[in-house]
Structures are given as structure tokens and as C-alpha cells.
Amino acid sequence: MSSVRRPAVAGMFYPADPGQLRQAVRGYLRRPAPPLDAPKALIVPHAGYVYSGPVAGTAYARLVAAAGRIERVILVGPAHRVPFRGLALPPATAFATPLGTVPLDRQMVERLRALPQVHVDALPHAMEHSLEVQLPFLQEALGEGFALVPLLVGDADAAQVCEVLDTAWGGAETVVVVSSDLSHYHDYATARRLDLETSQAIEALQPERLAPDRACGFLPVQGLLLTARRRGMRALNVDLRNSGDTAGSRDQVVGYGAYVLC
Predict the structure, then answer these.
(1) DSSP class of 2
(2) What domains lie within the chain, and their CATH numbers?
(3) First and final C-alpha spacing in the chain
């Protein structure tokens, strides 16, 4: 039987109207991207678009040239609402947004289910925003023709995340997207300092320097950095701002970073 995971935060984190949503995402993707190798992985923020959309767009703009080549997106983010152990896949066969429906890669889902830390659980996915807000960016950047493998990380460790990514890594047809904001609710100057330290750790591929108070998705990021380090990759920061930069208020800001890994 097929089932579709319906949007949970459309109209809150991003526009529910398809025309408005498409216009917003295309605006975020319009920032010129300097020539780089096509990224194998991205780290992107997941707040409401008015806050983090401009930052996420700087990373997703580098995927546009890969439209038609990318067949699979491994999308990994933290679970904010429901506690659980390990990593959770949804029972759905597709995820929907106002821009359309993205099918899940059922073959890869079944392959990952064989790992002991991975299980199927609808509850963590039901209202979670960290994966959902990435989908309109992927739909606009890649167009149709890609399948999704959506994973939420609960009570796990970086090695477990790394094993999942290694299993799903694939070749040029697969891209990995990790969803994470950076520091939360500091004054502007403190956030800038903390986020710069986190950004330097990410670019140095040093997951051991990350902590929960520096990135809400620190476990998915740690797992990706472990994988990248073992594979001799490089990580590049393409945008580092916070809600004080994007939305105006400089009190109790949230940090956002965008990274490409090649």
C-alpha cells in the first residue's frame, strides 16, 4: 500500500501557496554560485524561510547544475518533537509539499532497514520540520526525477549515523543533505563568535569539536563529517549568518550556516 506524508508546516515555516512558495525559493536560489566541483553533500539550515531561506539557498544553488543527474537524495536531520532511539525512516512511500510529491527510494529504504540502528516510525516524522523545509529547495533545484530517503536522528551517535551514510552513499547519482541550524538564542555578538568556531570545526572535518549547544543537528553533522574525513573530502562554508542578519532583530538570534562538501 502507498501512503503520502502530507506537509505539516506549510503556511508556518514556508508559504503554503504553490506560486508564492516557488517564487520565494527561486529568489533564494538566484544568488550567483562560483564554479565549484558538484557537491556530494550539503549542510543547510531548517528554520522558517524568512530567517534561514537566504542562507540555505546559497548551498542549494550549487545543486542546480546537477539537475537531471541526481537520482537520490539522502536527507538527514534531527528530531525536535519525539524522542526515540537510533534513526527513524517513515512508513510513507512519498513526501508531499505544495510543489508536488517526491517518491521515496524504496530499495534504499529496505537496505537501510537492515541496519540495527534504523527502524520505521511514523510518529517522529509526523510534525517534524527539519526535513520538510528542505523539500521545496530540492524540488526547485533538481526538478523531477529524484527519489528521497528521509531519516531523522534520535538518541544515536556519530558512528551510527556514519554507518547509515556509508551504506547509502552511492555515486554521482546520490547527494546527501544534512539539516541543522547552529547556535540558538544568544545575543548577536555571541552568536557570531560561537558560529564561527562551529564553522571552523566543520570546515576542518573535526566532528569531535561539535556539541549540542552549537548545532541542533550536531549528530547528523558529526556523522557526515566522519564520513567525509574518511573519504578525503573537503568542506567549504558558503554562507554564515544568523537571524539578526536575515530578519533584523539582533536579540536572541539563531545561527545558520551553509556548507558544500566535495
Answers:
(1) -
(2) 4-261 (3.40.830.10)
(3) 38
